[in-house]
Amino acid sequence: MRALFSVYDKTGLEPFASGLVELGWDLVASGNTARALAAAGIPHVEVAALTGAPEMLGGRVKTLHPKIHGGILADRSKPQHMSELATEGIGAIDLVVCNLYPFSSDPSVELIDVGGPTMVRAAAKNHAHVGVVVDPAEYPAVLRELREAATLSAGTRRRLARAAFAHTAAYDAAIVGWFDAGGAGGDADLLPPTLHLALGRAVELRYGENPHQRGARYRAAGEPTWWDGVVQHGGTALSYLNLFDTDAAWRLVHELLSPGATAVAIIKHANPCGAAVAGDLAGAYARALACDPVSAFGGVVALGGPCTAAVARAVADGPQADVIVAPAWEPEAVDVLVARRKATRLLEAPPYAGAALEIRSLGGGYLVQDADRFETARSEWQVATKAVPTPEQWRDVEMAWRVCARTSSNAIVVVAAGQAVGIGAGQQSRVEAAEIAVRKAGARAVGAAAASDAFFPFRDGLDVLASAGVAVVVQPGGSVRDPEVIAAADEQGTAVVLTSERHFRH
User: Fold this and answer.
1) Whole domain around residue 344: which residue ranges?
2) Which of 50, 206, 277, 454 could pair with 418 as two cysteines, CB 3.0-4.6 Å apart?
3) Pick from 188, 190, 184, 239: nearest CA to 217
4) How many domains does the chain have?
5) CA distance 144 to 147
6) In terms of domains, do 25 and 157 share one?
7) Beta partners for residue 203, in sequence order
């Protein structure tokens, strides 16, 4: 039996190769892999000695040879194939151990592997007769099976072949992505003619959106997300919606943080039902909860600072939360919440980092767009009315705009003194969204700032806010009735700020 080694990642190489030699296998190796085996004193034959052809072009050509690929691709069940091997003096290769250059870590033309993917694909194609191993984590299981049965089962070879094709697919996808990002001297194209997503399953979830649906979290192969740095300190296993809502909460709380202040966001069904900034975390939580304590039940609480025992006790005294996420946890804080909220998931998370593209399924296809970001600077906003916001109101205007952008459309958000006090989310009518927001705000709407994620098509939505005492409204503008709406605001002494940037969220 003969095995061919050509690996970039040499993790576990020595014990695996030694184990094969102990079982009587002959080893063939190329380049740096051969040098690593030689340094370890493991007997092997170099590819150049087997093929009779030296490595060429700085290593670009070494395994692309009939004595390599003939040995890998021969169908052992076909006498003609075996006869041709004998005629040409080619020995069969029964196991290919190969992993590829880490293209994503340092992309360049020189790291585009040619011989490696060719060997991997050849072995995977001929998996009826040849084993292929691309992941060092498989070495112990493969060696154990060979020790017990002297050969790999058909099921193992098929499983390894699937992993091999996934390995080369991810590698090719990374190269295409590099070209799309402007690699090789080209121009970046975030919405290219084709998209090649190689996604690896990171974790299986308890269930999907509903218990009868299966769910899992995937990530781009070789590209960790902020979720991969999350540590769970307590509570039951995470489900699909736990992740979905936590992602929304963690994003929003990071967008609200500012020097000298911390923030808390409470999310329910991917929408804010509370958000606040304050000088201390317990105060920010109390103010966020006060926005809508009824809706906060069963939601996600995102803390903009380390969770201390005092903060944990404040959260434990509030409505039950499905998830609490913070950048760090004091041990006593974990103990407090585990004792009083056993089912609540306690997550420690690194800073939020979003993706460049948003992808949604659409029937049998997909919708793709740039991720929504705040593109228009505050300095570019325009006051369109006679009334002008005060410095204190400007802070609320900016916060209302950020919270509103992360609220499902049609959305209206009312903010007073750094605290969301009324949120109307996901309404077909913008007027109704405004009515919900001011009803929840009550007297707190007086002197507050309100945000609308899109323009007011009529003055009625603005009238609802002004009648409740809202002092300033921020909105994109752009309606043919903007003059009407602005005139209505002037009638009532309400300031209107235009951002020229819409933030619909569906």
Assistant:
1) 231-348
2) 277
3) 239
4) 3
5) 5
6) yes
7) 217
